[in-house]
Amino acid sequence: MDYELLLRKKRRYQLGKDKIPQLTSASYEQAFEIEYTHNSTAIEGNTLTLMETKLVLEDGISVGGKNLREIYEQINHQKAFRYVKECIANHVGLEEKIVKDIHAMLMENILVGGVYRNVDVYISGAQHTPPSPNEMYRQVKNFYGDLLWKRDQLNSIELAAWTHAEFVRIHPFPDGNGRTSRLIMNYQLMAQGFPPISIAKENRLLYFNTLEAYAMEGNLSLFAEMIADLEEQQLDRYIGMIIQGEELDQGYQDQGQIL
After folding, report:
1. 195: containing domain
2. Which of 39-53, 60-74, 82-96, 198-212 has the lowest mean pLDDT?
3. How far, in Å, CA of 259 to CA of 175, rounded?
4. Distance between CA atoms of 245 and 237, rounded to whole angstroms?
């Protein structure tokens, strides 16, 4: 991971994002929200296609042949992501109440959200077994305590990766831990001035393997590298839009000088 390069690109993004035409910025953010919702729910088995996700979220059209849970998963994810963006805009730091609020939104009309599990759970296909309830309560309490001092230990990408990997390793909720983890990962990125990222459903095997490496061996580097690569791609997209906006502004200035 070339973190210094990411920081330079982040500064370029922060200083230049106001140069992106408003229509371009709004349409990209809307498209990202739909893509992110589609990918994050599809990783967990939701069968709606990207276009069906658009119909549900953007056009408010129900999709025939899909069960209500899948529809609610999409609507709820959009609501939770918007809540995350609202918290970031208000400079609210990540804490237990926020995480429980996010989970409650994700689970609306599905099951009671924001409540930690009191039974054992197992993850299909994974070597790692989440801790039993008593141990889980201890570990999740430590997780929130560690959020503070990890900020001084890790860079912003590593902190976001750790927040996701450690939370999903603990698996404190009966369901929805993956979606919650991806949202709080983006929470950490956005809190540090980075744009949010989306992990494509096509990359789920690599994604699961990197998380398993952390859960079994404590190796965060593979997952952090994946997040860094996705963040750089996202920054490059924004920088491309900034350059286009600057060229457009320059064109208007040149035209004004001619006139």
Report:
1. 21-113+133-219
2. 60-74
3. 63
4. 13
